[in-house]
């Protein structure tokens, strides 16, 4: 039966795409390292931005997979294979964190002992912000993420082989604890890797803002992948507009969630009006960085919000994929807004590395994603919701795909 075949058997082009992506990504990354000898700070700043984009797709997909294990829904059944493939790139992301470790002194002011000695605020935070503890926490984060991903994917593979109904319950229990672990670890990781770029500043909602952004990134990526797969057999006979309608509703929810968290952080800071809190916004509002901020309000919230209110946009693959691609682009701009102003306070500065490194790293990530996607059946036929969810959404949509077998 076609649906029992692996993605590699059904879509032979995947192997060629994998080679092209990995080759192009590695070449781009090697070219970018040339600037490491001339502008190391700029290199590591751009690398951090690129890394957080790729990590956001990985962890966003992993979190969405755990949400689906607990809540169910037809959207998760058709997206389960891309979700698993994205989560299995986590070992690669663990290795790709090493450049950030090597470039810590170019990124984080609190790594300089002479600066800490002259700064009372940094001295007060030294118990938390120190290099050994930073590395220990990073190790804990990656161990937790890789462990959850490993067991969920291993059990999913076992479910494909055995059709054991107990496996689904086991995955649900792990997902419940895994979501709690994800929320805690990514919150502290965002404090460590992003917020501590400006160690005098703090925001208690910052971690939740990053979580919302990662969920949005992962969902936009899944929509792009499903539109691409949905043009090819046998998924062209399985994925119907109603699936994209559900995914579009989720995308709209995450757009509003990100906007709510972003505005809440700004509102709380404005209401408090404390020097240590408003400093983060001052050089973003009183320089040319305010143009980037206005662009985020417009293209990260207002435009996708207006488009996703339309039922037609959400049900038409050719339209919703354009919205998803736009969201992926503005997610990178948002990370640029979070990171770059700490290094260029006088105004917007865009380096060629801000374009090449994200493109190269994401190409490597995509190549690894395709590699992981190739080895498993295109759909989880033994998912307990497979027959019911597929039949329910087809009946609700009034659409009859061609027979899959």
Give structural notes:
The termini are close together. The radius of gyration is 22 Å and the shape is globular. The longest helix has about 30 residues, at about 40-70. It contains 19 helices and no strands. The protein has helices at about 5-10, 15-30, 40-70, 75-85, 90-95, 100, 105, 115, 120-125, 130-160, 165-195, 205-230, 240-270, 275-285, 290-310, 310-315, 315-340, 355-375, 385-395. Helix 10 packs antiparallel against helix 11. It is an all-alpha fold. It has one domain (about 1-395).
Secondary structure elements and their pairing?
Blueprint lengths: L6 H4 L2 H20 L7 H32 L2 H14 L2 H7 L1 H5 L1 H4 L5 H5 L2 H5 L6 H32 L2 H29 L12 H24 L11 H32 L2 H11 L3 H20 L2 H5 L1 H23 L13 H22 L11 H12 L8
Quick overview:
This protein is mainly alpha-helical and 405 residues long. The protein is 76% helix and 0% strand. It has one domain.
Shape summary: globular
The major pleated sheet works out as: none
What Rg do the Cα atoms give? 22 Å
Uncertain residue ranges:
399-405
Structural class assignment: mainly alpha
Mean pLDDT: 90
Can you count the beta strands? 0
Structural domain count: 1
SSE pattern, N- to C-terminal: HHHHHHHHHHHHHHHHHHH
Q: What is the percent of helical residues? A: over 70%
């Amino acid at each position: 039966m076609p649906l029992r075949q692996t993605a590699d058997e059904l879509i032979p082009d995947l192997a060629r795409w994998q080679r092209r992506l990995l080759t192009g990504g590695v070449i781009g990354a090697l070219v970018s390292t040339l600037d490491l000898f001339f502008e190391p700070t700029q290199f590591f700043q751009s690398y951090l931005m690129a890394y957080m984009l790729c990590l956001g797709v990985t962890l966003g997909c992993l979190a969405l997979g755990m949400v689906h294990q607990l809540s169910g829904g037809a959207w998760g059944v058709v997206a389960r294979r891309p979700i698993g493939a994205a989560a299995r790139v986590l070992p690669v992301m663990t290795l790709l964190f090493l450049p950030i470790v090597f470039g810590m002194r170019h990124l984080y002011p609190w790594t300089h002992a002479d600066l800490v000695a002259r700064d009372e605020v940094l001295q007060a935070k030294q118990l938390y912000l120190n290099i050994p503890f930073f590395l220990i926490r990073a190790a804990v984060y990656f161990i937790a993420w890789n462990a959850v991903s490993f067991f969920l994917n291993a059990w999913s593979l076992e479910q494909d082989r055995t059709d054991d109904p107990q496996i689904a319950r086991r995955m649900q229990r792990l997902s419940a604890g895994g979501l709690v672990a994800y929320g805690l670890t990514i919150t502290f990781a965002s404090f460590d890797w992003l917020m501590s770029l400006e160690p005098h500043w703090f925001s208690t909602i910052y971690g939740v803002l990053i979580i919302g952004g990662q969920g949005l990134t992962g969902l936009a990526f899944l929509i792009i992948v499903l539109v691409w797969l949905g043009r090819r057999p046998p998924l062209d006979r399985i994925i119907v507009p109603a699936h994209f309608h559900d995914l579009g509703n989720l995308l709209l929810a995450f757009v509003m969630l990100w906007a709510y968290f972003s505005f809440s952080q700004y509102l709380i800071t404005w209401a408090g009006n404390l020097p240590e809190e408003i400093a983060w916004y001052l050089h973003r509002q009183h320089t040319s960085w305010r143009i980037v901020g206005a662009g985020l309000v417009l293209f990260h919230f207002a435009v996708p919000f207006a488009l996703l209110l339309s039922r037609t946009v959400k049900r038409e693959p050719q339209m919703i994929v354009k919205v998803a691609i736009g969201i992926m682009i503005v997610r990178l701009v948002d990370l640029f807004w979070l990171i770059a102003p700490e290094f260029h306070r006088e105004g917007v500065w865009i380096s060629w590395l801000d374009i090449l490194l994200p493109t190269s790293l994401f190409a490597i990530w995509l190549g690894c994603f395709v590699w992981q996607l190739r080895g498993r059946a295109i759909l989880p036929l033994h998912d307990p919701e497979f027959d019911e969810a597929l039949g329910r959404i087809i009946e609700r949509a009034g659409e009859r795909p061609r027979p899959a077998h």
